[in-house]
Amino acid sequence: MAHSTQPIRPIHFILGGSAFALLLLLTLGTVIALWWHAETSVALTPSDWSIIQFTIVQALASASISIIIAIPTARALSRRNFRGRQIILTIMGAPFILPSIVAILGILAVWGRSGYISDLIANFGVGPINIYGFGGVVLAHVFFNIPLATRIFLQGWSAIPIEHFRLSAQLGINTAGITRHLERPMLHAAVPGAFLLIFLLCVSSFTVALALGGGPKATTIELAIYQALRFDFNLAKASQLAMIQFALCVVLGGLTILLSKPIHFSQGLDRKVERWDAHEIQYRIFDVFILTIVCLFLFLPLYSVLIRGIIPLFTLPATVWVAALNSITVALLSAIISVAMALTMSALIIRLAHKYQTASQAMEIVSFLTLAASPFVIGTGLFVITFPFISPFTIALPVTALVNAAMSLPFSLRMILPAMIRAESHNGRLADSLGMQTWTRFYIAIWPRLRQPVGFSAGLAAALSMGDLGVITLFAPPDVATLPLIMYRMMSSYQLEAAAGVALLLVSLSLSLFWIFDKGGRLEHNLR
Amino acid sequence: MSITLDKIKLSHGEFTLTADFKIKEGQKVALLGPSGGGKSTLLSTIAGFKIPDIGRVLYNEIDITNMPPAKRPIALLFQEHNLFPHLSVEKNVALGINPTLRLSALDIKVVKDALYRVGLDGQGQKMPFELSGGQQQRVALARCLLRKQPILCLDEPFAALGPALKREMLDLVKEIVDSTKATLLMVTHQPEDASYITDQTVLIADGQAHSPIETTKLLANPPIALAQYLGT
Predict the structure, then answer these.
(1) A175: distance to nearest CA of chain B, Å?
(2) Does pLDDT of A279 surpass 50?
(3) Do residue B99 and residue A166 have CB atoms under 8 angstroms apart?
(4) B47: nearest CA partner in chain A
(5) What DSSP designation does B53 have?
(6) DSSP state of A218
(7) pLDDT tens-digit series, residues B14-36
(8) Residues A114-125: what's their mean pLDDT?
(9) Beta strands B74-77; B151-155: pairing state
């Protein structure tokens, strides 16, 4: 942590403090509100237990399968140099900002009752696949998390010093030896964190369970909260489930933060491949095999949904365009709130580090703990708090923007805080020695080094918010929608063609927003 | 073992490097020049990590241009990362005898002796992170000692060490090379390192690796490219 020589001014306390207070209200405040409500409830019923069990078992299965497939995939990408490798790496980054409902539509097109696979096996007289339930939920989670796990492990492989591969080549260590001496120790360090992160993401997954799960045998806690609120209007039950979800997420999130290394999104993956082992034919065949399978598994659903969307795109009803406007508004609002909170909190964390190191560290850790907060717990809490005063329907969009901003805050903070620390240590002292103060100091000395991470964070926050189908389902009245919500409604009424059209629109808008922000941050940057 | 670089040309984007000379058996040669000039690239070519675009590399007049690094009679030392962090000092050294680490009692004795020779007696059970930077390089040198390769290549292995420690390490290298009669190639950007243990120097500047010249002569009467680099 850089020790800033700057004094803490009231403005830092006011801005950074209110951002932090807002975060605490959203994460802890909502939980306390729920606690208060949950007290009236009864003991957990057997069906509650089966929901908890399903949530954990499907997350365990999803995380294990994702990791088992990602390890050989990352190894193949790390030790092979081929045309198209860069494209695969780029597209591997896409599922992170790809709206999950879009991916689910693609998965249905491939694995659904009338999808490619069912058509294929019908030739052999085997009945169509039933994607709904445990299998479908795990399949979709594996789809989302193979790229994430692959990227984490690829970073691990890139972090192995090039000298070690050269040394191994020199000493005549063969491929098995490289696995033993270089790859296994790296994986030993990387797997627990990756496993926990994916486990956490799958435990708090809502959209996948909503679209592919449901029913007594395939309901996650998040889905059960939604059902309790939306269909049964059972606040006590919802609060009780939300408390369980919160406890589960805090434990998992805490463990994840302890065990996992920071994830870098852009750098380090495209190091030139330099390997002198694994030229034997059996390794080559295996790598080609695994990459082909994984690429088909990942790209076929995306390809099919986007191709199918082209024609319906031109005949979309007017309601879709209204929803698109809502989505853009929510996304922009969410990006602005997320970045503003990250900036003001970073400034306060850095200044506190000088005198009150413990306070600064505590603030940093609590901020990252939002990673463990479930958007549904926050949404339910806000629902409980605001319900006596205003109709939830009237605040659907602002609440969605706020919750989405809180959800992307850990990512924004992870990008912006280190950048601000670097800016302070590189330029801060020089600025101080020149007598720069307050806004001049920020604008001239600090901001130029923040533009890039701020642009990236804003793009990420906007894209994540754009594609999110979470709290909006809780608050939205039937006549208000965002693009993901309208897509989900179309899918529920089997208007798959129109849904594909919306999917294409949604993906184009998300990627454009991300691109514009990211590009904006990079403009005229001539920094090292 | 002699090394011949026969009309070699390497290029990578804007960067090019040419070399055409022979290094005789048992010589101690410095590769000297500004950073980014291609010193390490040339060493990588000799060790087999890079294949030249044009030209041949020969050991004792045998063409080994396309021979994989493991087959080449070379021991190489980098500036850092010479040890595997999860293996003990003893095991890191033992890799020089057997890369699968299946060791006999005799092998272990040999490893202990090598550690004794580099001044790390009884430190075999330590892990690399428990050692200082200089000690880590000693461990790597102990491994080079066991590999008994006729060519020893050093890629600025002591650049991060202080002057006194560096002298000590250079003395150790000299002792090892003299006892094994190996050919030494050492990348450096410090002329005093070159003059301390090498007989000949290859000047690498402006995209060209010049033929080796006697180090003392070269430094006493530097050509323009070297004079610019030295700032004299």
Answers:
(1) 11
(2) yes
(3) no
(4) A170
(5) S
(6) B
(7) 889 999 999 999 899 999 988 88
(8) 84
(9) parallel
- N-terminal to C-terminal alpha carbon distance within chain B: 35
- Output the six-digit token pair for A258: 């302890």
User: Hey, are the CB atoms on A164 and B81 less than 8 Å from each other?
Assistant: yes
d(CA B136, CA B93): 11
The parts of chain B modelled with pLDDT lower than 50 are none
pLDDT score of A39:
65
- Long-range contacts for A110-117 (Cβ within 8 Å, ≥24 apart)? A110/A300, A110/A301, A110/A304, A111/A136, A111/A139, A116/A300, A116/A304
Cβ contacts of B68 on chain A, cutoff 8 Å: 169, 276
Q: For the purposes of burial, counting CB atoms within 10 Å of the CB of B216, is it exposed (0-12), middle (13-18) or buried (19 or more)?
A: middle
Q: What is the pLDDT of residues A7-52, one digit of tens each?
A: 677 888 888 889 989 988 888 888 888 778 776 656 778 888 999 9
Query: Are the C-beta atoms of residues A492 and A448 closer than 8 Å to each other?
Result: no
Cβ contact, residue pair A166, B78, below 8 Å: yes
Q: What is the pLDDT of residue A2?
A: 43
Phi and psi torsions of B205, nearest 5°: -155, 155
Interatomic CA distance for residues B180 and B145, integer angstroms = 8
The CA distances from residue A465 to A308, A352, A391, in Å, are: 24, 31, 23
Cα–Cα distance between A136 and A54 in angstroms, integer? 13
User: Encoding tokens for residue A174?
Assistant: 């063969």
Cα A432 to Cα A2, A11, A445, B87, distances in angstroms: 14, 18, 10, 47
Within A83-219, where are the H helices? 85-97, 100-111, 116-122, 134-159, 162-171, 175-178, 184-203, 207-212
pLDDT at A42: 64
Cβ atoms A54, A134 nearer than 8 A:
yes
Q: Is A166 on the interface with B (CB under 8 A)?
A: yes
On the 0-12 / 13-18 / 19+ scale of CB atoms within 10 A, B156 is buried
Helices (H) and strands (E) in chain B, counts: 8, 11
Is residue A527 predicted with pLDDT exceeding 80?
A: no
At B1 the three-state DSSP class reads coil
Q: What does the buried/exposed string (b/e) look like for A113-135 if buried means 16 or more CB atoms within 10 Å of the residue's CB?
A: eebeebeeeeeeeeeebebbbeb
Q: With 50 as the cut, is the pLDDT of residue A4 above it?
A: no
Whether the Cβ atoms of residue A139 and residue A131 lie closer than 8 Å to each other: yes
Q: How many CA atoms, within 13 angstroms, populate the side-chain half-sphere of residue B171?
A: 9
In angstroms, the CA A302 to CA A126 distance is 25
Residue carrying structure tokens 């809780």: A474
Q: Report which DSSP code applies to A214.
A: B
CB proximity A167 to B under 8 Å: yes
Q: Judged by CB atoms within 8 Å, which residues 173-192 of A form the interface with B?
A: 173-174, 177, 181-182, 185
pTM score = 0.81
Sign of CA dihedral B81, B87, B93, B98: negative
B58, β-bridge pairs:
B4, B63
Angle at B98 between CA B97 and CA B104, to 5 degrees: 85
DSSP state of A27: I
Write down all domains in chain A, each with its CATH number in brackets: 10-34+318-528 (1.10.3720.10), 41-308 (1.10.3720.10)
Give me Rg for the CA atoms of chain B. 18
CATH architecture of B1-73+151-232: 3-Layer(aba) Sandwich (3.40)
What are A326-377's pLDDT values in tens digits?
Answer: 999 999 999 999 999 999 999 888 888 877 778 777 777 777 777 667 787 8
